[in-house]
Automatic annotation (TrEMBL):
Recorded name of the encoding gene: mpl
PANTHER family recorded: UDP-N-ACETYLMURAMATE--L-ALANINE LIGASE-RELATED, UDP-N-ACETYLMURAMATE--L-ALANYL-GAMMA-D-GLUTAMYL-MESO-2,6-DIAMINOHEPTANDIOATE LIGASE
Listed NCBIfam families: mpl (TIGR01081)
GO molecular function list: ATP binding; UDP-N-acetylmuramate-L-alanyl-gamma-D-glutamyl-meso-2,6-diaminoheptanedioate ligase activity
Species in which this protein is naturally found: Pseudomonas kuykendallii
BP GO annotations: cell division; cell wall organization; peptidoglycan biosynthetic process; peptidoglycan turnover; regulation of cell shape
Record domain Mur ligase C-terminal: where: 313-435
UniProt pathway: Cell wall biogenesis; peptidoglycan recycling
Organism phylogeny: Bacteria, Pseudomonadati, Pseudomonadota, Gammaproteobacteria, Pseudomonadales
Protein name (Swiss-Prot/TrEMBL): UDP-N-acetylmuramate--L-alanyl-gamma-D-glutamyl-meso-2,6-diaminoheptandioate ligase
Residue span(s) of domain Mur ligase N-terminal catalytic: 2-99
């Protein structure tokens, strides 16, 4: 079958393309922005990519068009599909129908940490010899690919609350029917499709309604929004993580790189890994709980976590030039920015930390997270914000109250000049964006040479 994917370079749709190819289909796709790491991964899989949404890409007609949620009415490819009556489906529906049927699905949902936690979980199962399939919105470095079918009934999926398609406004995760569900945390996000936090909580409850009575729900005990979700009705056993929960961590190093795990008050072992930050410790506890549900004893899960290498674009070290280290990070919400910088600060102590932030997500463009931005960067020594001309709100006024030296730039050149002027051996530069950021990482590394 020839499947054409519209929006193929999105992290979810690109992973879907890999699975379709592995199932033996001929896969092609088009996207407005074809850029790494997804474009590189897809081309390596022999998947033909086309730039833009020209209707001619759909001639001769494919057997099926999978339409990504970034596309809407008025898009020339979408209009062509509808006018010609071509068969089409949303990505989550295709995944549910052709990959997840009959499998033990482990779903990882939440505002933050989905990619990291699903990567940890897939790796822990792999380390335990369970050869899971997975679909992850990023590239776990232990695997080097974002999706695979796997050889066993187990399938780990990053369960996103974003909508499924222009014709299906339900959250993606209601299609997946997980047996084991991690609910990491819940904050207001996706302001382009949700009016408020209660609207997102309702979608999370739709997910809870699909989890079987013989399944398991895992959540942090202190997450008030998730407690409210479960109070709407829960038919599934629950395990809790964090202080006061069943799964707890005792930090052996302040940066979270070593911690002892206990379950129901009984020590299970010590994780000693390359990751930092309390958020990753929390992700690890949820991972161990989910892995135990499918038969991985905590001792084996802990051994797997100690060999975990993180995910591309999650505090990924991309360059080191004359003692200046450059990281690429996906953080694009004030909470994620704050936890990322906190983990780095605890690791590097008093070394200079420079943060470069692009407010690129749909919620950021709408100004939904403006209030938390100035406080989110307190652990940095200096911050450069990128304000593209089409932002639509006053970024400079928003961050004017920041307690650290702050500069708002309207070009990559201005950011590079600023970082160059202040970087010295030992400086840690974190570039935070959920997009390609115009290749800033490579340009900055070249400028520092």
């Amino acid at each position: 079958m020839h499947i054409h994917i519209l929006g193929i370079c999105g992290t979810f749709m690109g992973s879907l393309a890999v699975l379709a190819k592995e199932l033996g289909h001929r896969v092609t796709g088009s996207d407005a922005n074809v850029y790494p790491p997804m474009s590189t991964q897809l081309e390596a899989q022999g998947i033909e990519l086309m730039q833009g949404y020209d209707a001619a890409h759909l001639e001769p007609a494919p057997d099926l068009v999978v339409i990504g949620n970034a596309l809407s009415r008025g898009n020339p490819a979408v209009e062509y599909v509808l006018n010609k009556g071509l068969p089409y489906v949303s990505g989550p529906q295709w995944l549910a129908d052709h990959v997840l049927q009959g499998r033990w699905v482990l779903g990882v949902a939440g505002t933050h940490g989905k990619t990291s936690t699903s990567s940890m979980l897939a790796w822990v199962l792999e380390h335990a010899g369970m050869a899971p399939g997975f679909l992850i919105g990023g590239v776990p470095q232990n695997f080097g690919i974002s999706a695979r079918l796997g050889d066993t009934p187990f399938f780990v999926v990053e369960a996103d609350e974003y909508d499924s398609a222009f014709f299906d406004k339900r959250s993606k995760f209601v299609h997946y029917r997980p047996r084991t569900a991690i609910l990491n945390n819940l904050e207001f996000d996706h302001a382009d499709i949700f009016p408020d936090l209660p609207a997102i909580e309702r979608q999370f409850h739709h997910l809870v309604r699909t989890i079987p009575g013989e399944g398991l729900i895992i959540h942090p005990v202190a997450e008030a929004a998730l407690v409210r979700v479960l109070q709407m009705g829960c038919w599934t056993p629950v395990q809790t993580t964090g202080d006061g929960g069943q799964w707890q961590a005792r930090l052996l190093s302040e940066d979270g790189s070593r911690f002892e795990v206990s379950f129901d008050g009984v020590p299970q072992g010590t994780v000693d890994w390359s990751l930092t930050g309390r958020h990753n410790v929390d992700n690890a506890l949820a991972t161990l709980a989910a892995a135990r549900h499918v038969g991985v004893v905590p001792e084996l899960g802990i051994a797997g976590l100690s060999l975990f290498k993180s995910v591309k674009r999650r505090m990924e070290k991309v360059a080191e030039v004359d003692g200046v280290t450059i990281y690429d990070d996906f953080a694009h919400h004030p909470t994620a920015i704050a936890t990322t910088l906190d983990g780095l600060r605890k690791r590097v102590g008093s070394a200079q930390v420079i943060a470069v932030v692009e407010p690129r997500s749909n919620s950021m463009k709408l100004g939904a997270h403006r209030d938390g931005l100035a406080e989110s960067v307190v652990q940095a020594d200096r911050v450069y914000w990128y304000a593209p001309p089409n932002l639509g709100w006053d970024l400079a006024a928003t961050v004017a109250g920041a307690t650290v030296p702050t500069e708002v730039c309207d070009s990559l050149e201005a950011i590079i000049a600023g970082v160059r002027a202040h970087a010295a051996p030992g400086t840690q530069v974190v570039i935070m964006s959920n997009g390609g950021f115009g290749g800033l990482h490579g340009k900055l590394a070249a400028a520092l040479q």
